[in-house]
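Retro notes (design track)

What went well: tokenization of the new backbones is finally stable.
What didn't: we kept losing track of which sequence belonged to which structure.
Fix going forward: every design gets posted as structure first, then sequence, in one message. First example under the new rule, 192 residues:
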């Protein structure tokens, strides 16, 4: 049997290693979190799936939410604090180091070139994610001319175009999210 104090250290260490060795955000962490949590017998697979669903439906980063939930289940409030600190601390340390180095070398042609390329890469990655989601958002019934005439497609297109125009007019993202949620609920009740 593990002592109470040791469970907090184990939660911190486990989620610290998850945060340290996983690149690509919360979803990339999921397989490692699942492996570690099942390996330690902290949760069942069904409980992990439930926690993933809850983590997705609550505000905040996925990795923070899932680590908080697992920590709370295993070690209560202090367990959730330890797990959450563990998962965010590696990113915090790395970004501090990067920021310190960037300030020192920001006038370097090498760093300027890297930042130029990274800006283009980030925009490309975001565009790839957007284009990858477009068929799911607009053509969930499949690609066919008839799918362009469905209420689902037309509602999605109107909501998308309206939010795009509002975004270009610099309307607050919070307002856009609330408006799109309201429009989605209304269109779902009326048309879908």
């Amino acid at each position: 049997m593990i002592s109470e104090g040791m469970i907090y250290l184990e939660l911190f260490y486990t989620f610290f290693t998850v945060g340290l060795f996983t690149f690509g955000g919360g979803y990339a962490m999921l397989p490692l979190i699942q492996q570690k949590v099942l390996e330690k017998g902290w949760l069942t697979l069904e409980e992990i799936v439930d926690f993933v669903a809850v983590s997705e439906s609550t505000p905040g980063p996925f990795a923070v939410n899932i680590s908080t939930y697992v920590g709370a289940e295993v070690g209560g409030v202090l367990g959730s604090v330890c797990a959450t600190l563990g998962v965010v601390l590696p990113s915090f340390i790395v970004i501090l180091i990067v920021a310190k180095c960037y300030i020192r070398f920001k006038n370097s042609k090498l760093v300027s070139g890297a930042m130029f390329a990274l800006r283009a890469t980030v925009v490309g990655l975001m565009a790839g994610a957007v284009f990858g989601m477009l068929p799911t958002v607009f053509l969930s019934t499949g690609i066919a001319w008839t799918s362009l005439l469905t209420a689902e497609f037309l509602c999605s297109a109107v909501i998308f175009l309206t939010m795009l125009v509002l975004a270009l007019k610099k309307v607050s993202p919070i307002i856009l999210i609330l408006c799109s949620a309201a429009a989605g609920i209304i269109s779902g009740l009326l048309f879908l």
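Added context from the reviewer: The longest helix spans residues 62-105.
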